[in-house]
Amino acid sequence: MRTNRKTARKAAAPVAPRKKKNAFMNRDKEGHGNKIWIDPDALSVECAICFTPFEAEVFMCKNGHAACAKCCVRINRKCWCCGKPIGDMRCRPLENVLAEMNTHCRFSKYGCTEVVKYIDKSRHEEACPRAPSGCPVDGCTYRGLLLYKHLLDEHSDAVVSVANNLPATTTTLLSLHKSAPFRVLVLERATDAGEGEGSVFLLLNGGGVLSGRSLSLVRLGAGDVEFGYKMEVRGSEPGVLSLEGTAPRVRELEGFEAKMFLFVPDASWAPTDRVSVSIRIG
């Protein structure tokens, strides 16, 4: 049987490889690559141990297994895959590629239009003003940019409203049960701040200390404005416990450990398992 030459030539032609969806290169008019882009959700250039994007320094063992600097210390400089020493040898080719990679912020669907270097991705997203916040109320699945409004609309009975621009002597008083992991505080928008929402804080009632509880204050969500605070605790024991500081900003409570807290001994909670907390923010 005779074979058509055109058909045979077409059948013998090599199949072009599929382009990966997680990275692509822009080309100039002459066809030369000038920018390397990577999808914000790509998994191919992240540390295999901590699953966070690689930054400027990448280390490898002699078998080529890569890890970030922090993980090299975390695993005692013993390769997670083959057991060989890791942490002395840099993976320069990968570092050079990473330095040329650009990406969009993973919060682009919430309105962020920033284009950042891949090695700066984590730092940018940590401070991105368009990062959504999850609702802290147990059982609620809300996640978005309007947390303050959501709390007032949907959980008004579970939050404590704190007025802004008050005299320094004015505080908000609330009761805290020993078993409650936190209380939600919403700070009203300052009257001279123009358009915008108020801020959301959590009064954390943590464990991790012997013979008592640890109280601390954190701010939920984005924003560069710092808020000072002062809290005072009165329990069944005579006297007042107090703490002053600046509320740290957090996106998620998971993994957060307060560096500054007020220790409230068990004796202060007896016999009702409650204490009275007065707090001033701003």
Automatic annotation (TrEMBL):
Keywords, in A-Z order: Metal-binding, Zinc, Zinc-finger
Q: Name one GO molecular function term.
A: zinc ion binding
Biological role: E3 ubiquitin-protein ligase that mediates ubiquitination and subsequent proteasomal degradation of target proteins. E3 ubiquitin ligases accept ubiquitin from an E2 ubiquitin-conjugating enzyme in the form of a thioester and then directly transfers the ubiquitin to targeted substrates. It probably triggers the ubiquitin-mediated degradation of different substrates.
Q: Which Pfam families match?
A: Sina_ZnF
User: SIAH-type domain: from which residue to which, for each copy?
Assistant: 100-156
Identify the domain of life. Answer: Eukaryota
Identify this protein by name.
SIAH-type domain-containing protein
Region annotation Disordered: where it falls in the sequence: 1-24
* Lineage, highest ranks first: Eukaryota, Viridiplantae, Streptophyta, Embryophyta, Tracheophyta
